[in-house]
């Protein structure tokens, strides 16, 4: 089945993923790994874009 028609994640889902990265690192008392930092940056950018899109729809 094609992935072309999937809905983008909601800001809430992206925020949950961001928090999960930090919680896991915190539980292990460590900083984010290089891979986790890259994932974090992508998630934050996607969250910002999704938040802007929702604000545009509300206006």
Mean pLDDT: 88
N-to-C SSE series? HH
E-strand count: 0
Give the N-to-C terminal Cα separation.
Answer: 35 Å
Organism: Streptomyces flavochromogenes
Protein name: MarR family transcriptional regulator
Description:
With 59 residues, the chain is mainly α. The chain is built from 2 helices and no strands. It has helices at residues 11-27, 34-58. α1 packs antiparallel against α2. The protein is elongated, with a radius of gyration of 14 Å. The model has no long low-confidence stretch (mean pLDDT 88). It comes from Streptomyces flavochromogenes. This is MarR family transcriptional regulator.
List the helices and strands and how they pair.
Elements: H1 11-27, H2 34-58
Helix pairs in contact: 1-2
TL;DR of this structure?
This protein has 59 residues and is mostly helical. The protein contains two helices and no strands.
Keywords:
MarR family transcriptional regulator, 0% strand, mainly alpha, 71% helix, 59 residues
């Amino acid at each position: 089945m094609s992935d072309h028609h999937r809905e983008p994640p909601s800001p809430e889902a992206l925020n949950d993923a961001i928090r999960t990265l930090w919680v896991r690192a915190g539980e292990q008392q460590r900083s984010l790994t290089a891979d986790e930092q890259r994932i974090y940056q992508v998630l934050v950018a996607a969250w910002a874009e999704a938040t802007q899109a929702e604000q545009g729809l509300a206006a």
